[in-house]
Amino acid sequence: MKIRNDSGPVKWVLIGISALFLFVMLILPLVYVVFTALRDGLDSYAKAVTDPYALKAIGLTVKVTVITVLVNSAFGLFAAWLLTRYSFRGKGVLAALTDLPLSISPIIAGLVFLLMFGRQSFLYPFLDANNIRIVFAQPGIVLATIFVTLPFISRELIPVLNAVGTEEEEAAALMGAKGFYIFTQITFPHIRWAFFYGVVLCAARAMGEFGAVSVLSGHLNGLTNTMPLYIELLYQGFDFTGAFAMSSILIVMAVLILILRNILEYRGKKELEI
Amino acid sequence: MSGQADTYVELKHINKNFKNFVAGDDITFAVEKGKLVGLLGPSGSGKTTILRILAGLEPADSGEIFIAGREVSHVPASRRGIGFVFQNYALFRYRNVFDNIAFGLKVNHWKKQDIRDRVNELMELVGLTGLEDRYPKQLSGGQRQRVAFARALAVEPQLLLLDEPFAAIDAKVRKELRLWLRELISRVGITSIFVTHDQEEAVEMADEIIIINRGKIEQIGTPAEVYENPRTPFVQDFLS
């Protein structure tokens, strides 16, 4: 049933404005990136993305993303479980804290870790004595990325866990099942798609994170440069072909993730209908 | 009544307070072996909470619970030997009927063939043979109730608890199902307690009725007794 008859000119004007806006803001820049990347021909594109430093940057980004997703998957599951299945004092505060990274500027996240593990920190003598390098090294990059993407998975899980309720879990417990078995056999099927969806969002953000990582990386080319940092470096050195070639790889990864995201969303919705 | 030889389930001085609501105020009653008892009261009277405390799903603030002579007040829900039918049945949505009923058996490490035999036996008992591969969403309300019932009985519990077993069922078929469930429970011979807000349902099904209001027991007796001799104004009002 139609509430209003919007098939008239209003609809077309709205569609026109949206399309124009998306074209200028989204499509055009993306096309321009690809165009610039390929401006000097396929050979220089291939050369740019197979450069040893480029490969190192890609490798580091993949490594950081994988570690981040693993850590935040564990944290997200625990946090969501805790916040939906237990009631305790300070629960509201904890829930707000888990969401904090969403509202903090990434550069502050970077600075926090820099101050905590850097030379001026009270921890530094200990770290130095044990030869542990965090700042201007890969552990710092991983830490910053984990911080920035901390809430992504738990935020997807909490509403689903709340909606599912606890009765199936209680039924399983009454039949003699233990906590972990109940979680894997009864609870997880409910949150499966939301969880994968959170993983995808987390991975996407981890790959592209610039601010926090930039503060902690130290920009050691081939060692602590992730893809976004490497792109900046190329750009600052007026290597536009290289910068845009690397960008095009990030864009392809983003598009793949977007497709994955839509598949997961579709599967999740479908399963609700059984 | 307590202290009798055939007392099977006993609650002694159970108290339970939520933030701004009393769910259990010195609840004491006993159930004899093989009886079907109805906890009757208006919504918000605390009857479901009492059932959940009995099952171990909710801790009581104080008091003792005995099942079959064993003190279970601090025994976790998973080891109280209780079958529970939830108001909305809480069937495992991602498991078919067979796996729903088999869950408890698997958890208790039954052999594959024994599980198959037991599930088939239960499916026959509740009249659902042939629907093993269906998922809960593909069943009617009445069929879901039967699955929940079979699932609760699978591991041969000592006590069966049912929370508003007919709330999720079409009013038209409720009457018919009451008689079916009553007959089935007496055939299995399991001691059972059900919660309801419907006097008619309590009268028709229960051997004994416990009337609860604001977390307090108002009266205990057979349906005839409570109808003929309502002991408090509340009971009189509620039953009329």
Strand order, largest beta sheet of chain B: 6-7-8-3-9-10
Ends apart, CA distance between termini of chain B: 27 Å
Strand content of chain B: 25-35%
Task: Label the overall shape of chain A.
Answer: globular
The share of residues in helices of chain B is 25-40%
Give the strand content of chain A. under 5%
Write down the secondary-structure element order of chain B.
EEEHEEEHHHEHEHEEHH
Order of helices and strands of chain A: HHHHHHHHHHHHH
Please count the beta strands of chain B (DSSP E, at least 2 residues each). 10
Instruction: Show the largest interface.
Output: A-B, 17 and 27 residues
Number of strands of chain A: 0
Number of DSSP helical runs of chain A: 13
The secondary structure category of chain A is: mainly alpha
The residue-averaged pLDDT of chain B reads 91
Task: Provide a concise account of the structure shown.
The complex is a heterodimer of chains A (274) and B (240). With 274 residues, chain A is mostly helical.
Task: Describe, in plain words, how this protein is organized in 3D.
The complex is a heterodimer of chains A (274) and B (240). In chain A, 80% of the residues lie in helices and 0% in strands. By secondary structure, chain A is mainly α. In chain A, helix 1 crosses helix 13, helix 3 crosses helix 7 and helix 12 (227-236) runs antiparallel to helix 13 (240-272). The model of chain A has no long low-confidence stretch (mean pLDDT 90). Chain B has 240 residues and is an alpha/beta fold. Chain B contains eight helices and ten strands. Chain B has helices spanning 47-55, 97-107, 112-125, 141-153, 171-188, 199-205, 223-228, 233-239; strands at residues 7-18, 21-32, 36-40, 62-67, 70-71, 82-85, 159-163, 191-196, 208-213, 216-221. In chain B, a hairpin with a 2-residue loop joins strand 1 (7-18) and strand 2 (21-32). In chain B, helix 2 packs across helix 3 (112-125) and helix 2 runs parallel beside helix 4 (141-153). The longest helix of chain B is centred in the last third of the chain and has 18 residues, at 171-188. Chain B is globular, with a radius of gyration of 18 Å. Classes of the chains: A mainly alpha (274), B alpha/beta (240). The interface between A and B is medium-sized, with 17 and 27 residues.
